[in-house]
Amino acid sequence: MSTQTIEFIRPTKQATTPQRWSVPDVEALFKLPFADLLYRAQQTHRKHFDPNAVQLSTLLSIKSGGCTEDCGYCPQSAFNSSGVEDRQMLAVSAVVEAARAAQQKGAGRFCMGAAWREPTDEDMESVVEMVKAVRDLGMETCATLGMLNDEQTEQLRAAGLDYYNHNLDTAPEFYGNIISTRDYQDRLDTLERVRKAGMNVCSGGIVGMGENLTQRAGLIAQLANMDPYPESVPINNLVRVEGTPLAQAEELDSLDFVRTIAVARITMPAARVRLSAGRQQMSDAVQALCFLAGANSIFYGEQLLTTGNPDVEADRALLDKLGMYPSTDKQ
Length: 331
Ligand code: SF4
What we know:
By secondary structure, this protein is α/β, with parallel strands linked by helices. The protein has one domain: Aldolase class I (TIM Barrel). Helix content is 38%, strand content 14%. Strands 1, 2, 3, 4, 5, 6, 7, 8, 9 and 10 form a 10-stranded parallel β-sheet that branches. The longest helix is centred in the middle third of the chain and has 16 residues. It is globular, with a radius of gyration of 18 Å. It starts with 22 loop residues before the first helix and ends in a 5-residue tail after the last strand.
């Protein structure tokens, strides 16, 4: 497919006064006829991005398992019995080696994730070194380390961290069904610190955890009403891992997942909307619909934090089939 015949407007900065979205307004989007919803999402997408470019992020678990939080979907929680082994923090050299390998395969952003409620001061020393070293490779950096205090946020900013990920997971009304060891406001406070420090915010959620449509709309409204909304919005489809309380959750209809992507695109027009966990269980056709709905970022590499992901060759083949290519925009 020729890229020269396609007109698109370069990504623009978000308006300083974002449109406010009520939950009923977002729910009304979800209820649009499928073709109308996707058409509107495509129109929005094409105003802000090259519709055929996809940003590639690789995720590495720098410390796994034994987390003291009780997130019902997570195989790394010490409350769950999924068989994920506790693994202490990787050495900085191992992280840099993994980042270099990801870069050679075409990833532009490297995300470092640790299974912590919050990092200690000692943890932060290593993470800061990792961030600096990965940046020195010329990659964008992202970290997901749990809750942060002011000092830790400043340490990450000073190290040059580009993005901090902290997901809202779900709507406030459904949150208590999934997690009890920290509250919604704790999450909002961490995101506020990251924003105030001047780093880009990566925040999204998980669908298919048993939430109803209003609650799914509530998650999107929470994200879209942040001022400004996150630059990066990972939308995860629950991976039902044995040994977690959500192992038996009812599977979300694929088209409802596509609708979630479209609604995220419409309500957060200039955000990178990332197809995240659950992609390995999706057919090429469903992924293609997600791209059509406005997804323009994927996790790239065989492994997410603990669950599987399509392999690099399969992703390359899919992008080729769709006439898509890696994004070169630093956004
Ligand atoms: S999602 Fe994060 S905070 Fe929750 S249990 Fe898993 S590793 Fe811990």
